[in-house]
């Protein structure tokens, strides 16, 4: 791996006034207040998003503002200083931030997903410990978990496990506080997840993220060399027997990270498209000129039939996509509740909350998991299609001058196009076809 010199980091001081304003206020309370906080952050990011996209600096300032805003804590347990919200709120917050900057919506989404890891594949004690550290210290989480690469190799050495290997993608890693590692224990087919400090010699970033879109996500490659972790930090494993705990890892609940993150993707796709439509509408009303050679000439672009028709269609399709994503988000939250959890926090820890009768991990059956996955996949198909259509199509209603780099309208399409290649949507459509025609739920995989 040929490492490049680190890119220049953005300066957190540029957001000092906004950070101080957020820090002077209490955390939001309730879904509406969290969405409003996310909207405020999105508006700040939107002001200079085209400029930051061109500069392509490492997003230290942007992550710092996410921390100051409290958004990293939206799912965290209240007793540790978090928002105590469930995933239905988390998804809407991700979508809102993505309206202002797709890269930051993606980073927030991945952070919330990785923050959930211990709750899904760890013991209750591990989940409490991880949530306490992440929430109280307001840490930002990255993840070196790319299933298309070879698994990291894990060896056992006394009371420790040792990670070695390479990952092509590690979203947010360069600017993260903690990194989720995942690999296979040598001599077995058993996977282990754990959290490690990002800033250590064994974490060697290549600083090679240079794709056409999502340029501020720092999703470049990383080499892991002799990173040592106590066996007690192996999530869902018995540190005495050095074996996975079947009641944790051998049930459908342990696979929930996959539909959870797939819906993260869909929400920042939709958020990017909604942001594109808002930005395009503002430009059209202020700068676009009516076409004078159509035979039915109008004085204003907002009287042009084709412009009105395009905006009407885009608006309708995005509203429909958002409604589907909200329905799926409500079901994700419901499944976590049925499994005895609430967002990223243990349900029993939620102040004034109560555990539904029979709410345990074992309550989530393969059929329930399959039903959820089908709904999530539906959202993935629709959000992918509409986001690509809107972000490419807005130029039809803007005019040639809007292609100027200073406006940055191309960033919306580049962001969506980049991440929608993460896993082929054609396979999602096939999964839904089998679900509809044959009643077959998709097999739980690293991408389903």
Automatic annotation (TrEMBL):
Keywords: Flavoprotein, Oxidoreductase. GO terms for biological process: L-leucine catabolic process. Residues 1-22 are annotated as: Disordered. Gene3D superfamilies: Acyl-CoA dehydrogenase/oxidase, N-terminal domain, Butyryl-CoA Dehydrogenase, subunit A, domain 2, Butyryl-CoA Dehydrogenase, subunit A, domain 3. SUPFAM superfamilies: Acyl-CoA dehydrogenase C-terminal domain-like (SSF47203), Acyl-CoA dehydrogenase NM domain-like (SSF56645). Residues 264-422 form the Acyl-CoA dehydrogenase C-terminal domain. Pfam families: Acyl-CoA_dh_2 (PF08028), Acyl-CoA_dh_N (PF02771). Residues 1-10 have a biased composition (Basic and acidic residues). GO terms for molecular function: 3-methylbutanoyl-CoA dehydrogenase activity; flavin adenine dinucleotide binding. Residues 46-128 form the Acyl-CoA dehydrogenase/oxidase N-terminal domain. The keyword Oxidoreductase applies. PANTHER family: ACYL-COA DEHYDROGENASE (PTHR43884), ISOVALERYL-COA DEHYDROGENASE, MITOCHONDRIAL-RELATED (PTHR43884:SF12). This is Thermophilic desulfurizing enzyme family protein. The lineage of its organism: Eukaryota, Fungi, Dikarya, Ascomycota, Pezizomycotina.
């Amino acid at each position: 791996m040929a490492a490049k010199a680190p890119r220049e980091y953005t300066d957190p001081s540029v957001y000092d006034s906004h950070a101080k304003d957020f820090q002077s206020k209490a955390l939001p309370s309730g879904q509406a207040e969290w969405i409003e906080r996310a909207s405020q952050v999105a508006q700040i990011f939107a002001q200079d998003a085209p400029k930051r996209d061109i500069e392509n600096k490492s997003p230290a300032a942007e992550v710092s503002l996410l921390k100051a805003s409290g958004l990293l804590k939206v799912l965290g347990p209240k007793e540790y200083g978090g928002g105590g919200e469930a995933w239905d709120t988390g998804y809407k917050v991700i979508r809102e931030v993505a309206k202002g900057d797709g890269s930051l919506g993606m980073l927030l989404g991945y952070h919330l997903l990785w923050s959930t890891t211990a709750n899904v594949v760890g013991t209750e004690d591990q989940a409490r410990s991880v949530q306490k550290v992440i929430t109280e210290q307001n840490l930002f989480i990255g993840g070196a978990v790319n299933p298309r690469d070879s698994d990291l190799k894990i060896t056992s050495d006394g009371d420790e496990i040792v990670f070695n290997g390479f990952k092509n993608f590690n979203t947010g890693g360069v600017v993260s506080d903690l990194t989720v590692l995942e690999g296979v224990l040598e001599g077995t087919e058993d996977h282990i997840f754990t959290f490690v400090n990002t800033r250590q010699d064994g974490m060697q970033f290549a600083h090679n993220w240079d794709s056409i879109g999502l340029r501020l996500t720092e999703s470049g490659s990383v080499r892991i060399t002799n990173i040592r972790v106590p066996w007690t930090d192996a999530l869902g494993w018995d540190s005495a027997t050095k074996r996975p705990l079947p009641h944790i890892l051998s049930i459908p609940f342990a696979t929930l990270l996959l539909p959870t993150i797939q819906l993260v993707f869909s929400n920042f796709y939709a958020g990017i498209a909604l942001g594109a439509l808002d930005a395009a509408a503002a430009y059209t009303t202020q700068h676009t000129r009516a076409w004078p050679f159509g035979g039915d000439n109008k004085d204003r672009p907002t009287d042009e039939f084709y412009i009105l028709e395009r905006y009407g269609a885009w608006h309708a399709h995005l509203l429909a996509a958002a409604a589907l994503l909200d329905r799926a988000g409500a079901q994700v939250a419901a499944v976590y509740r049925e499994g005895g959890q609430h967002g990223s926090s243990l349900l029993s820890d939620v102040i004034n909350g109560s555990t539904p009768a029979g709410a345990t991990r074992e309550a989530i059956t393969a059929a329930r998991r399959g039903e959820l996955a089908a709904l999530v996949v539906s959202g993935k198909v629709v959000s992918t299609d509409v986001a690509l259509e809107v972000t490419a199509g807005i130029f039809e209603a803007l005019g040639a001058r809007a292609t100027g780099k200073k406006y940055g309208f191309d960033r919306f399409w580049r962001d969506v196009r980049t991440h929608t290649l993460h896993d082929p949507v054609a396979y999602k459509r096939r999964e839904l076809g089998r679900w509809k025609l044959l009643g077959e739920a998709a097999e739980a995989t690293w991408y389903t």
